[in-house]
Amino acid sequence: MSSKFIKNVENFKCERCGFIVVGNGYTNHCPECLWSKHVDISPGDRLNTCGGMMEPIGVKKKGEEYIITHKCVKCGFEKPNKAVSDDNFQMLIQVSAENSK
After folding, report:
1. d(Cα 81, Cα 59) in Å, to the nearest integer?
2. Which residue of 2, 68, 73, 80 is 20 to 30 Å from 58, comparing CA positions?
3. If residue 61 lies in a helix (H) or strand (E), which one and from where to where?
4. pLDDT band of 25, cuts 50, 70, 90
């Protein structure tokens, strides 16, 4: 299994909130609700057959970056993803607060 990143420029409709996401090749979650989809084995390869929705279950600050932890609601796989400037900051705060209890 390779960990080499494969850039995929894809637009998609978020299956959680319906937001239309304009991808840039690095987009891995909805910037509105922060949910993702379990489609990769290695970033960008689209080889994972799980296809479960990835819930944002935590947010941590690492230096100047925010890291979102996603957990697949179908298989339980967890993966960290960097937050980006387009992400809904209020959702980042909400996820962080909900999971710090």
Report:
1. 10
2. 2
3. strand 53-62
4. confident
